[in-house]
């Protein structure tokens, strides 16, 4: 079930509901690029868990209006706007990949409402002291962040070119993605259901432009608008040790600086391993 929710500044956010509407509310924040139609456990699984799962397109993706110049911190206000519109008080937040920094924003800026937060295979801030930010990162991602450092115009041109290719042949783009994955990730993405989800997810995310993708990369590359060290809520950090999209040292850096954070690093897993553990993470989020 989907709907549009209007923010106080007049933007529309496209929201999707999954699972048990009377269950415990959990916001699931999608990756980069991504949409509200990304990975989610089957409805029957969510019903059994007692989870009311809420997904939404970040600004500029799918059917959500763009928010020019947005920062990672802006995600907290959008989550709060959706929760208010749905008459939800407390909730949990789970963010995967590009959604992980945005989940941390909710933990830092909505401490009275985001009672549990999980950040899976995420990034550390670009200005993280003592972290070799690019070490172990795949060449394509390094290129994106270097383009961001050169300015929004160069990044926009590069990602618009890629988004046109994805829109014209989403299945071929998913097949190309598989070829660059680690063995463990290839095994996960070999699943026909996962492939269908990725096609649906990328097609919706980039349905009209690369705006959301561009804005995510720019937001990750500049000041986030909050300090991870300020997070006091219950926080779980999960990462696959062999991840090359968001190297594991990013999550280790966060774990060393966020008081009380629980860190799980899985040997032999990589970036898409987060899809395999998602049901367990959702169960933790409502416990």
Question: In a few lines, what is going on in this structure?
Answer:
Helices cover 43% and strands 17% of the residues.
Task: Itemize the secondary structure elements and their pairings.
Blueprint: E1 2-6, E2 12-19, E3 24-29, H1 43-49, E4 51-56, H2 74-85, E5 91-96, H3 99-109, E6 114-120, H4 139-150, H5 152-168, H6 170-179, H7 183-189, H8 192-205, H9 211-221, E7 234-240, H10 248-257, E8 262-266, H11 273-276, H12 278-285
Parallel strand pairs: 3-4, 3-5, 5-6, 6-7, 7-8
Antiparallel strand pairs: 1-2, 2-4
Helix pairs in contact: 2-3, 4-5, 4-9, 5-6, 5-9, 6-8
Describe the structure.
The protein is α/β, with parallel strands linked by helices and 287 residues long. Helix content is 43%, strand content 17%. It is built from twelve helices and eight strands. It has an eight-stranded mixed sheet with strand order 1-2-4-3-5-6-7-8, with helices on both faces. α4 packs across α5. The longest helix has 17 residues. The mean pLDDT is 96.
Strand content: 15-25%
Number of strands: 8
Estimate the global geometry from the Cα principal axes: globular
Main β-sheet, in a few words?
8 strands, mixed
CA(first)-CA(last) distance: 25 Å
Strand pairing plus helix content: what structural class? alpha/beta
Helix content: 40-55%
Number of helices: 12
Order of helices and strands: EEEHEHEHEHHHHHHEHEHH
Rg, Cα atoms, Å: 17 Å
Indicate the mean pLDDT: 96
**Oligomer description:** single chain
Spatial strand order of the main sheet: 1-2-4-3-5-6-7-8
Which segments are poorly predicted (pLDDT under 50) over 5 or more consecutive residues?
none
